[in-house]
Amino acid sequence: MALVIVIIVLGAGIGISTFLIVRNLFAPKKIARVEQLLKQNKPAAAVKAAKQHLARDSRSAQAHYLLGRAYLQDGKPELALMEFRTVNQIGQFGGAIPEKTFRRQIAELYARFNQPEEALKEYLLLIQKDPNTAENYFKVGLLFEERNKAAKAVNYYRKAIQLQPGHGLAHLHLGFILYRAKRHGDALEYLQKALRFQPDHYEAYFYIGKIQKETKDYAGALQSFEWSAKAQEFRMRSLIERGTSYMEMNNLERAASELERAINTVKDPVEGDILWAHYFLATCYERLRQIERAIEHWEAVYRIKPGFQDVAEKLSQYQDLRQDDHIKDYLTVSQEEFRRMSEKMAAVMGYSTQSIEDEENGVVMIVVESGGNWRSNKKMPRLLRFIRVPDVIDEATVRETHETMRTQNLTRAMIVCSSTYSRLALDFAESRPLELYNKDKLQEFLKKAL
User: Fold this and answer.
1) Which single residue of 53, 56, 198, 327 could bond 168 by disulfide (Cβ 3.0 to 4.6 Å)?
2) In Å, how far are 14, 49, 70, 88, 186 from 34, measured between CA atoms?
């Protein structure tokens, strides 16, 4: 009986040993099969083979790594990350699991799935393993920049450039940081280098244009923004910048054309930058005296965001324009027609015109009382100023008028405006020979004159 038991035990031992030997002999071949399937671009078959291997050996780091690669090839990065995390926990690298490649892959996946802290840890480990690769430092710099740690990001970008002087993206992002820090000269240098190494960095053109615009190099800015507009993601912003550049050059017709281009590029009417395009275009039309067109664009903004800038105030200021044709004419006619209109109103007020000069947003007249003037029997020259703006007239404007009156040795001045006066303006005029007529009085003059 004892002999039988010994034979059974020995037989079982030999069977188990034989099984383990056979399994170990064939396991590498099965793992190699997964590798072969990946090379043949058959990710689904590779996933199945890797899972079969893990069913027999769940702690196989190599099988988990190959399964992760198969998921990546099959377009399932979230599952790949799960497998790579398991590989990281097992911690067996080398041979079929090249650590540098693995750390780069898992770091990219962490960044992709918005886990910047984990991604940063992996890239810092990668720098220890591979300290001479510029891309590792660039990636760390990018993660620090995204976390608003500019000083740390700068150090890593500089190291990337030191290792690889032609690293265009490192120059580009270093330029962005310097631009935000208002170091425009240094920023311009790095942005231009980024273009030298990679000419299709349209974002570099955009920020170069911003710097040129801020330094009043409008010709250069217009050219840079034209280049950046070639990229769809910068087209709207670039055209708006071109429009506002022309506005600063006082070329309002070209400005309006560029801003119309910007608006016409947008498919979604509620896109953020579209509000600025409409707003600046309305400003152009207002300055061009095309008030009805300006109102159209203020209303476009108001429909999307009623509280945007001073749009509600502008619509309120021009409300009378749609109700009173005389006010509309006063605000929108040509300067030549406005001169004739002003002379007619001066006559209604009881004055004859001695001289009239154009100024921005109005005219300045020297007038004398005509016979039977309703104000006074003294025929002394006076200053009469007609202003056509929707904004409240401030103290500075009234003070300037008073100073002009004194310079020309006149004894009284009058201002007629299409809006109202500030409290300080009224206070200034109260104790001086100044008469201020607001929009309500203007409407009376217009009804009598036209």
Assistant:
1) 198
2) 30, 6, 9, 20, 52
* DSSP annotation string for 264-317: HT-SSTT-HHHHHHHHHHHHHHHHTT-HHHHHHHHHHHHHH-TTSTTHHHHHHH
DSSP letter for 359, please: E
**DSSP symbol at 358:** E
pLDDT for res 146: 94
226-231's contacts with Cβ under 8 Å and 24+ in sequence apart are 227/202, 228/202, 228/203, 230/202, 231/202, 231/203
Strands 362-369 and 382-387: antiparallel
Nearest 10 degrees: Cα torsion 99, 100, 102, 107: 130
Q: Give the number of residues written for the chain.
A: 450
Residue 448 to residue 450: CA distance in whole angstroms = 6
Handedness of CA 79, 85, 89, 92 (dihedral sign): positive
What is the Cα–Cα distance from 442 to 450, expressed in whole angstroms? 12
- pLDDT digits 0-9 by tens, 105-150: 999 999 999 999 999 999 999 999 999 999 999 999 999 999 999 9
DSSP, collapsed to helix, strand or coil, labels residue 86 as: helix
- Collect all residues with Cβ–Cβ distance below 8 Å to 230 and sequence separation of at least 6: 202
| Cross-strand pairs, 359 | 362
Domains recognised in the chain with CATH numbers: 29-131 (1.25.40.10), 329-449 (3.40.1350.10)
Q: Residue 101 forms beta bridges with which residues? A: none
Per DSSP, what are the bridge partners of residue 262?
none
**Identity of the amino acid at 164:** Q
pLDDT per position as a tens digit, 175-199: 999 999 999 999 999 999 999 998 9
The pLDDT value recorded for residue 430 is: 94
For 179, what's the count of Cα atoms within 13 Å in the CB-facing half-sphere? 24
Q: Worst-scoring range by mean pLDDT, 25-29, 204-208, 318-322, 423-427?
A: 25-29
Reading the block at residue 87, the tokens are: 């590989």
